[in-house]
């Protein structure tokens, strides 16, 4: 599993969601009915929070949680949205975008430069929620690994040497001895204010050589405190033996800092920068130190001047002319540019419309080539025929390559969930494994991109609500370890993705009761099991009593349904109490190659997905009946001609295509069998959305259009006419 | 220039129109709706659709539905003649259809295509509330062109996806009722 890829996906998705959120915010006052827009904004925030949590991006989670809480209040009608709040929410959007950009540039924690903005936004958000006086709610508190305000890098204070300067180098064995360096820094903050801090990570070996149990870090700290040297040193009493501490008192001469720089093991250039960075010295002071240095150098002993000072000097010249902070910022910037370049080289995001256009053009090219070769044959020109056959070979390769561009395996999406399941399971305190099947099923890139979100919700829902705690499982005679299963397969021109769990299953009564309570259904209506199960996809439906970080806001499942319907797919849930729940998502392959079988009825050519065909037989019917004897079994058949009202008389030698869909087997009577054909599915215009039996169309080599039969819908259509198709077992 | 902007915004209708013949009558559509005009060619029929949906054609790799305007106006299915053409038109997609990026392309089968004419907004009258043989909401106005009246079509209404879908749905429902009325059992249960 490549987490980097998943992170890229998260970044892309977040950007899209933030765009949506912004648009919704900008349009909200124009629309009369706000609830839809508010729901959209809320869902965007909720999804970002959820996904960020999976990557342990605590700063994003903490921030988004507060935004979400405010939106939740708005959604429930506890607060009324006004202009001021919209402006505030837009700023939050910008701030989140900033964090996402930071993430793209490789920053996995909060950016101290903007942390103050974030804190300000949070305060405003809380003010709107009327939470100003209260502490942030316990939940946010627990999550808030916000940069502690007292560890902010205070640029304005830089150069004011009223601070203690502490140089800390923790010994390698600190962690092994059970000490946590961060704990000491926190304790230190009780004596005063950490005005600036720079982490010295120079001792960090390459990742391969690193021993995770050793500590390689040091810190340069500017410390604002009235405490005396004793008290400050006392903080580090427990690690004294294990650690190298140097203190420079406030208002010390700059030369003392230079001494300090020299005494420390690291490269003086870095240290100089860090001192400036954490605000203990200013660039100007360092420059002054340089002057002092070079003066003293003239009188210094030869070996001394040959040692560190020249190097230090040259650095400080640079520092004197250009503020090191500026230099560092510039360097960071450069690094970001390089990193982004590298990403761009790995992959290019192309508008899918452009790919569609390319594929259409290639299709036309094939037809044009075919016509040219027909002319070549007619003219009996061998040369022309040779040229056209080379051409059509090349064009077909181009077509395959073009089609490949859009197709991706679902495996990458599935693998993303290994980490999801692992982390969420830990968060929930449950033991849950993930089994993945059908990773090789290919589907359209656009579908893959859009299915990630709904799947995430489904998996998390299954883990949170589906899988029971271990003790309940054992009591029910199940293995303690719960299993989530992801499965994907192609079925008659659709891709089917299943998320199943072996948990407690859905409780019908509880769902029904909740739905009635929420006014989603009338109390006296009789519902089938399937209808009851599908209630969980209604907006605002959630049976979880407490709001957890994971789910329970009643947002997940309706997002799932909405996203899937937007893809013209369907979602279904099946469950048996005590055994588990399976959510089946069926999506059309908006653009995919399937192996089809061409048949002709009258003038119309139809494509039947090959994987639904068992065999083809010669037409024969039991006298007066619409079923046939297939090796001693009853095979009911459908006359395509009469079902589709196609005129004309049937040919003398009709055939029956034996179809199997799920547990149902049936025959399809057609005029002529034309053979196998690999087809590119073209979605049909929405005007045909009522035509259930056709799932799409394709263009044949001749340039004619053929319709692709939706076998499942076809069988359902005749099934609804009162004639039951016998199941295979019967 | 604010003045131009106002003029553009307030211009009620475009001034160039493509005229065509349907039966005996002349109709016109705003030229900005027209993508191209192609010769009539055999097309794949889509089953279970109302008569006004003639089928689908392959327009350079895109599968485009074609409406039979004559049938759409309730005048029966058009007969294919020598000059039968398909006008490929682009109309704004309906609100519930987000897939097509706001535009959708449809073909209109007509008996013959005439010419592109200029009709000044001053020469366009509102449709009378009665006296026309086609549904009033299909008419954007009646233009005067070379001393003759020509009906300017409101394409968004004529080519309304939602309406065609509703037609197809009611057709399917009728069929189902029909089946139930005759309750025959093609297969033993």
Summed up:
The complex is a heterodimer of chains A (730) and B (189). Chain A has 730 residues and is of the alpha+beta class.
Description:
The complex is a heterodimer of chains A (730) and B (189). Chain A is α+β, with helices and mostly antiparallel strands and 730 residues long. Chain A has 5 domains: 3-147, Four Helix Bundle (Hemerythrin (Met), subunit A) (Up-down Bundle), CATH 1.20.120.160; 151-338, no CATH class; 352-408; 410-588, Histidine kinase-like ATPase, C-terminal domain (Heat Shock Protein 90, 2-Layer Sandwich), CATH 3.30.565; 593-719, SH3 type barrels, CATH 2.30.30. Chain A has 24 helices and 21 strands. In chain A, the strands form 5 sheets. A 5-stranded mixed sheet of chain A has the order 6-8-9-11-10. In chain A, strands 19-12-13-21-20 form a 5-stranded mixed sheet. A 5-stranded mixed sheet of chain A has the order 14-17-18-16-15. In chain A, a hairpin with a 3-residue loop joins β10 and β11. Chain A is elongated. The relative contact order of chain A is 0.06. Chain B has a single domain (16-181), classed as CheA-289, Domain 4 (OB fold (Dihydrolipoamide Acetyltransferase, E2P)), CATH 2.40.50.180. Chain B has a 6-stranded mixed sheet. The model of chain B is unreliable at 1-11 and 183-189 (pLDDT under 50). Chain B starts with a helix and ends in a 7-residue tail after the last helix. Chain B is built from 4 helices and 11 strands; from the N terminus they run αβββββαββββββαα. In chain B, β10 and β11 form a beta hairpin. Chain B is α+β, with helices and mostly antiparallel strands. The A-B interface holds A 353, 359-364, 566, 568, 603-605, 625-627, 634, 636, 643-646, 682-694, 697, 699, 703-707, 720-725 and B 42-49, 53, 55-58, 60-65, 93, 97-101, 104, 106, 161, 164-165, 168-169, 172, 176, 179-180, 183, 185-189.
């Amino acid at each position: 599993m490549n987490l980097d890829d998943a992170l890229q996906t998260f970044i892309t998705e977040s950007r899209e969601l933030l765009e949506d959120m912004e648009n919704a915010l900008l349009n909200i006052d124009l629309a009369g009915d706000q609830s839809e827009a508010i729901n959209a904004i809320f869902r965007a925030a909720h999804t970002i929070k959820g996904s960020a949590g999976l990557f342990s991006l605590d700063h994003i989670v903490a921030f988004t949680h507060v935004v979400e809480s405010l939106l939740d209040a708005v959604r429930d009608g506890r607060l009324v949205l006004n202009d001021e709040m919209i402006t505030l929410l837009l700023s939050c959007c910008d701030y989140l975008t900033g964090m996402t950009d930071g993430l793209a540039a490789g920053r996995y924690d909060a950016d101290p430069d903007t942390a103050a903005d974030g804190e300000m936004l949070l305060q405003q958000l809380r003010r709107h929620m009327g939470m100003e006086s209260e502490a942030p709610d316990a939940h946010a508190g627990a999550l808030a690994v916000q940069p502690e305000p007292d560890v902010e890098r205070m640029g304005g204070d830089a150069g004011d040497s009223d601070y203690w300067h502490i140089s800390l180098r923790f010994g390698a064995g600190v962690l092994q001895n059970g000490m946590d360096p961060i704990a000491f820094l926190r304790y230190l903050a009780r004596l005063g204010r950490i005005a600036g801090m720079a982490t010295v990570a120079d001792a960090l070996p390459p990742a391969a050589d690193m021993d995770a149990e050793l500590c390689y870090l040091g810190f340069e700290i500017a410390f604002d405190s009235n405490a005396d040297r004793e008290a400050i040193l006392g903080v580090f009493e427990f690690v004294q033996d294990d650690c190298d501490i140097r203190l420079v008192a406030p208002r010390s001469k700059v030369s003392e800092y230079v001494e300090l720089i020299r005494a420390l093991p690291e490269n003086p250039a870095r240290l100089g920068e860090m001192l400036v960075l954490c605000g203990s010295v200013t660039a100007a002071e360092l420059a002054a130190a340089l002057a002092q240095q070079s003066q003293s150098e003239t009188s210094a002993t030869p070996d001394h001047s040959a040692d560190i000072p020249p190097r230090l000097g040259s650095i400080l010249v640079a520092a004197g002319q250009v503020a090191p902070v500026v230099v560092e910022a510039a360097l960071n910037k450069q690094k970001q540019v390089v990193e982004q370049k590298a990403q761009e080289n790995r992959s290019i995001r192309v508008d899918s419309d452009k790919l569609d256009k390319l594929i259409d053009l290639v299709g036309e090219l094939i037809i044009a080539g075919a016509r040219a070769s027909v002319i070549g044959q007619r003219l009996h020109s061998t040369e022309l025929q040779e040229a056209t056959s080379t051409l059509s070979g090349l064009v077909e390769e181009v077509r395959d390559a073009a089609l490949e561009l859009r197709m991706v395996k679902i495996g990458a999406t599935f693998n993303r969930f290994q980490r999801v399941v692992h982390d969420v399971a830990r968060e929930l305190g449950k033991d849950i494994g993930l089994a993945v099947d059908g990773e090789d099923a290919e589907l359209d890139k656009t579908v893959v991109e859009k299915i990630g979100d709904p799947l995430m919700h489904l998996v998390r829902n299954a883990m949170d609500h589906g899988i029971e705690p271990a003790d309940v499982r054992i009591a029910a005679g199940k293995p303690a370890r719960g299993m989530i299963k992801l499965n994907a397969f192609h079925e008659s021109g659709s891709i089917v993705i299943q998320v199943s769990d072996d948990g407690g299953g859905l409780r019908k009564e509880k769902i029904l009761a909740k739905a009635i309570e929420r006014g989603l259904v009338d109390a006296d209506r009789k519902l089938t099991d399937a209808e009851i199960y599908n209630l969980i996809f209604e907006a605002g439906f959630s049976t979880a009593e407490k709001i957890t970080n994971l789910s329970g806001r009643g947002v997940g499942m309706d997002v799932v349904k909405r996203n899937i319907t937007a893809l013209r797919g369907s979602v279904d849930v099946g469950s048996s109490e005590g055994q588990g729940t399976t959510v089946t998502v069926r999506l059309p392959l908006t653009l995919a190659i399937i192996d089809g079988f061409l048949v002709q009825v009258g003038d119309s050519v139809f494509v039947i997905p090959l994987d639904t065909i068992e065999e083809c037989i010669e037409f024969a019917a039991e006298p007066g009946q619409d079923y046939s004897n297939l090796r001693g079994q009853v095979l009911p058949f459908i006359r395509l001609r009469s079902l589709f009202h196609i005129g004309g008389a049937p040919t003398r030698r009709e055939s029956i295509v034996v179809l199997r869909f799920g547990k149902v087997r049936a025959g399809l009577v057609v005029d002529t069998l034309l053979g196998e054909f690999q087809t590119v599915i073209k979605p049909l215009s929405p005007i045909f959305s009522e035509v259930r039996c056709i799932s799409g169309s394709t263009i044949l080599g001749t340039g004619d259009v053929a319709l692709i039969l939706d076998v499942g819908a076809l069988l359902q259509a005749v099934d609804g006419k009162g004639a039951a198709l016998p199941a295979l077992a019967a | 220039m604010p003045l131009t902007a106002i003029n553009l915004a307030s211009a009620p209708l475009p001034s160039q129109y493509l005229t065509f013949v349907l039966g005996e009558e002349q109709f016109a559509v705003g030229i900005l709706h027209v993508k191209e005009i192609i010769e009539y060619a055999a097309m794949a029929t889509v089953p279970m659709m109302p008569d006004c949906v003639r089928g689908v054609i392959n327009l350079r790799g895109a599968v485009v539905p074609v409406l039979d305007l004559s049938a759409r106006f309730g005048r029966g299915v058009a007969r294919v003649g020598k000059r039968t053409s398909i006008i490929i038109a682009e109309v704004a997609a309906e609100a519930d259809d987000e897939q097509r990026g706001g535009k959708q392309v449809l073909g209109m089968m007509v008996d013959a295509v005439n010419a592109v004419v200029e009709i000044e907004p001053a020469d366009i009258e509102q449709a009378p509330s009665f006296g026309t043989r086609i549904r009033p909401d299909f008419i954007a106005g009646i233009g005067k062109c070379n001393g003759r009246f020509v009906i300017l079509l409101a394409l968004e209404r004529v080519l309304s996806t939602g309406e065609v879908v509703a037609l197809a749905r009611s057709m399917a429902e009728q069929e189902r009722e029909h089946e139930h009325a005759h309750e025959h059992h093609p297969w033993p249960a």
